[in-house]
Design brief:
This protein is mainly α. The protein has two domains: about 100 residues, no CATH class; about 70 residues, no CATH class. The protein is built from ten helices and no strands. The two termini are about 20 Å apart.
């Protein structure tokens, strides 16, 4: 077995989800993945602190993609001074509904290297697959317009849109759009984290 086969099995299982992740998950999606993620190791000890932090961030990210917020939080707290760890930390708090704390961690993470690809993919999605003019007016549509027309990815804008959606004051038509954008953000950050942890080309 290669060092990366356990990781491949985990990511394949996560990608097999037929439904988009909820904006505010209420429980772990597949509890059988918890131990597999926790035991993930490439058996290549390194003196490179960046790689070590990336491995911790990878576990934080995989747990979050499995809706395991507490497990994800435990790992991201170990690398609070790391940009990728801070980004996963912010995403966890957003998904638990602690929006101000989420934005705090996004600010701590700063301009992350994954954000160019996130902005590109999200903007393309909103231009090609969503008729924003047909969505109900409100805070979510305004946020989506700002994201579509923006030049850089600002996770705080998505946080505000999700907060508005989860407040119950927005129409449900906008929920799947936010879920898809969340999915893109998670996928791009996870791909970046895998690359950093494995020192190889993007695997997913």
């Amino acid at each position: 077995m290669s060092n990366h086969e356990p990781l491949n099995r985990i990511t394949d299982r996560i990608q097999s989800r037929e439904q988009l992740q909820e904006l505010s998950p209420k429980g772990v999606w597949d509890s059988s993945l918890t131990a597999a993620i926790n035991s993930l190791s490439f058996n290549t000890p390194t003196a490179d602190a960046a790689v070590d932090k990336a491995m911790i961030a990878l576990k934080a990210g995989l747990h979050l993609c499995n809706d395991s917020l507490d497990e994800s939080h435990a790992y991201s707290q170990e690398i609070e001074d790391d940009s990728t760890g801070g980004y996963w930390h912010g995403l966890m708090h957003r998904m638990e509904g602690d929006y101000s704390n989420a934005n705090y961690w996004f600010s701590r993470a700063g301009a992350h290297l994954s954000q160019a690809s996130i902005q590109s993919r999200v903007s393309d999605y909103l231009r090609s697959d969503v008729d924003l003019e047909e969505l109900p007016s409100g805070a979510v549509r305004e946020a989506l317009l700002a994201i579509r027309d923006g030049q850089i990815w600002l996770p705080q804008i998505l946080t505000g849109a999700i907060a508005a959606q989860e407040s119950g004051q927005e129409k449900e038509e906008t929920r799947p759009v936010l879920q898809m954008i969340q999915q893109i953000e998670l996928a791009e950050l996870l791909a970046f984290t895998i690359t950093a942890a494995t020192k190889e080309e993007q695997m997913i």
